[in-house]
C-alpha cells in the first residue's frame, strides 16, 4: 500500500527492495547511506522496505512484507532458516544466496570452498571433538610443534574454532621467543587481543590449526560488490599488540589500498564461489602471494562516500537489469560507468582514451645541505667497522637505528668537548690568580689555541646534534650520514719538519632536500586535478556528470580495467611526492607511508629515473663555459647574446637584458647574501629561542647562507675575486625557500629582498636550462644520456597500448566469460606516472622540443631504441598547434616544483 501511495505517477509500479536483517544491521550507517544513494540515483524505479525485527523473529513468513528483490544476510540471532522459507514462498530476486550462508558459519566449509575455487589459503588441519558421537581427533602437543591427525604444525601457528561465530582466535609462539600466546577477540573499546603466558592449546572443542602467515603486521580487508568491483583497506593486525589504532573521530585507523590484478581475480572468485554479491573477506600478503584467511559474507566499508556511491550504482543497475523488463518498468540500461571513456582529440575527432603517461617533478622541498667533519675518535671507528666499512672504505647510514647511534655519539662527544672547555676555563682562571701563571710546557698562547680548537669542535658537534634531532624522529628518508676512511698521511709541522698524521674518518652528514608540508599539499592537489584529464560519466539519473571531481576516473579505477603503475626515483622527496599525488588521485585517506610502500615502485634498478652520471662530463664542460662567459665585467654584446642563447629563447633573452653586466650582477647578489647572513646573525643573538620552519636553528640557517656566500665569492690563485656561477641555482633555491617558509627574514630586508629575488632568478633563468645544453646538438647529447631509459620505457608503454596482440595485456582485461554488463571487456586504460627530479624534466623536454618531433613525431626521437615501430600522428613544420606550443615554451622561465608533462 505504501508503495502505491509514494509512486510518482498513478499506476506506475516500482521495484520493491526488501531488507531482511537484524535491526542493528539494517539501520547501520553503511546500510542507510547506500539505501539513500540508491533512492537518489534510481528513485523513479526503486524503493525500499525494511522488515521489522519483531516481524522477522516472531511472525510466520507468510506475514512478512512482500518484495521483488531481497537483501538478507545472517548475523547473531538471525533466523536464517525462516529467511530461506520466505525465499521459497515468494521467489524474490536474492542479492546474496541464503543457502550458501550456512557455509560461511563453518570454517571447514569455507576452506573447502576456497580450495575448489583455486584460491590460495593457509595450510590447515582440522581437529573435531564431538562428545555426542565420541569422535575425537588425534592431537599430539610436542611443545614447539603440534601434530593434528598426522599433520605437523610448527609454532607460530593459529588456532581457530570450527564455528565462524567464535571469534576467539589464538596465536601460539615458539619457546625461542618466549612462548605464550596472543589471544584475539572481537574489539572491546581499544583492545582486540592480549598476550597470555599459556603455551598449551585448548583441550576442549573443535578447532582448525593453520600455519601462521607473516604479513608484516598488516591485515587487508576486502569488500567486494559483484564480481567486478572491490574496495580494500589495510589495518594493523589485531595480533600485533592488541591495541586498536583510532583516529581523532574514534574510528579504527584503516588505509585504503590498491589490489593487484591477481587479488582482483581472487575477489571475483570469492563472490562467485560463495554466491554472495556483497561479500567481505580477509587477505594476508606475504612472500609475494596473497592468502584468503577468512570470508565474512555480507559486510560493508564502515566509512567511505566513494564506496557508498559505487555500491549504490552497482546494486541499482544489477536489480534493474534483472527485474525491469519482467515487471514492465520503463528503464533503459545506461551508459556503463566502466565502459572505455571517449575524448575529443586536438584534431576534433572523438577517440577512445587508451593511455595516459606523465612525467612529474617533485614538490616544494627544503634546501639540500651537507657538512663534512674529519674525526678520529675510536668510537666512530668502531661504528665504521660494525657496518663493514673496511670492505668498501666507506659506509652510508640511513636507517633510523643507525642514525640514532650517530646521534648518541654526537651527544657524547659534544658533552665531552663542553667538559674540556669548562676544565680549560678553570685552568685559565687559576693561572691568573697565581704567580706561576704558565707551566713550563704550555704558554698562554697555547691555551688560547686549544680553546679555539675546542670551540670549533663544540660548534660542529652541536650542529651535527641539531641536524639529527630535527623533526623529533628518524624516517630513513630525510637524513643520511656517511663515513669515509682517510689513510694516514704526512703533514707539515711548525718546525718545518713533516710528521705522520694517523688514519681518520671523514664524516659527511647530508640533510634537507625533503618534501615540505607545502610540497605534500601541492602533490595531493595536483593528484585530484589530474583526475579531470579522464572523461566523466553519464549519471543514471540524467544529471550532468561531476567532472570537476574526476568521478569518471574514480569509477574507471574501481573496475578491473584500469592499469595504474607509479614509478619514482629513490630520492625521498620524489617518493613522498608520488605517494601524496596517489592519495589525491585515488581519493585515499590516511598517512603517506603505507601508500608509498604499496603503490610506488622504485625505478632505480634500471636507471629509469636516477641515472644521469653519463652526462656529467658534458655538463661539466657546459658549466665551465657558463662560468667563463658570466665573469666578464662589461655589458653583454650581441655576440654574447648569440653565444649564450643561439636558439633565441625568449625567456633567456629577457634574462640577459635584465642582467646587462654579469660581473656587477654577481657582486650585487653577493651583497644581498651577506645581508641575509647579517640578519640571521642578529636574530641568533637577539631572538635565540625562536626557531625557523621545520625547527631549523639560527646556527644552521646562518651556516646555510654563509656556505652559499663562501662558495659563490672565491679568491683564485692569482688573488682575484671570482664568482662560481654553478652556485646560483642553490642560492635561488634558498631564496625561494625562505620567501615561502621564513617570510620574517624577508621582511627585515624590505624592498632589498624583492630586488634580490629578481637578480637571482634572472641569473638562474640562464644558468639552469643552459647546464643541459646551449645549442641544439648539445641539448640532445645531454638529454640522450640523462633520460634514454625513461624515453625507451615511454615508447614501450605507447607500443603496448597500440598493439592489442601484446600478451602482457591479457592480465589487465576481464575474462570475456564474465563480462556481463560491460560493453567492451577487452579494452582498458593504461596509466603510467613517473616522478623524478629537475634533470629529467629538462632533458625530456629538450628531446621533445629539439628532437625532430615536428617533422616525424616520435620515431625520430625514439629511433635510438630497438623496439617495434609505433604509428603516431605526424606534424608539419608549419603546424599551428605545434608553433603555438613552441612559442609558449620559449617564454617559460623555469620548470618549477610539480612541473608535469602528460602524453595521452
Automatic annotation (TrEMBL):
GO annotation, cellular component aspect: cytosol
Compartment(s) of residence: Cytoplasm, Cytosol
GO biological process: inositol metabolic process; inositol phosphate biosynthetic process
Domain VIP1 N-terminal as annotated: residue spans: 15-106
Catalytic EC class: transferase
EC number: 2.7.4.24
PROSITE patterns membership: HIS_ACID_PHOSPHAT_1 (PS00616)
GO MF annotations in UniProt: 5-diphosphoinositol pentakisphosphate 1-kinase activity; ATP binding; inositol hexakisphosphate kinase activity; phosphatase activity
Pfam families named in the record: His_Phos_2 (PF00328), PPIP5K2_N (PF18086)
Entry keyword ATP-binding: yes
Reactions that this protein is recorded to catalyse: 1D-myo-inositol hexakisphosphate + ATP = 1-diphospho-1D-myo-inositol 2,3,4,5,6-pentakisphosphate + ADP; 5-diphospho-1D-myo-inositol 1,2,3,4,6-pentakisphosphate + ATP + H(+) = 1,5-bis(diphospho)-1D-myo-inositol 2,3,4,6-tetrakisphosphate + ADP
Keywords: ATP-binding, Cytoplasm, Kinase, Nucleotide-binding, Transferase
Main location per the UniProt record: cytoplasm
PANTHER family xref list: DIPHOSPHOINOSITOL PENTAKISPHOSPHATE KINASE, INOSITOL HEXAKISPHOSPHATE AND DIPHOSPHOINOSITOL-PENTAKISPHOSPHATE KINASE
Role this protein plays: Bifunctional inositol kinase that acts in concert with the IP6K kinases to synthesize the diphosphate group-containing inositol pyrophosphates diphosphoinositol pentakisphosphate, PP-InsP5, and bis-diphosphoinositol tetrakisphosphate, (PP)2-InsP4. PP-InsP5 and (PP)2-InsP4, also respectively called InsP7 and InsP8, may regulate a variety of cellular processes, including apoptosis, vesicle trafficking, cytoskeletal dynamics, and exocytosis. Phosphorylates inositol hexakisphosphate (InsP6) at position 1 to produce PP-InsP5 which is in turn phosphorylated by IP6Ks to produce (PP)2-InsP4.
Family: Belongs to the histidine acid phosphatase family. VIP1 subfamily.
Protein's name in the database: Inositol hexakisphosphate and diphosphoinositol-pentakisphosphate kinase
Native source species: Plectus sambesii
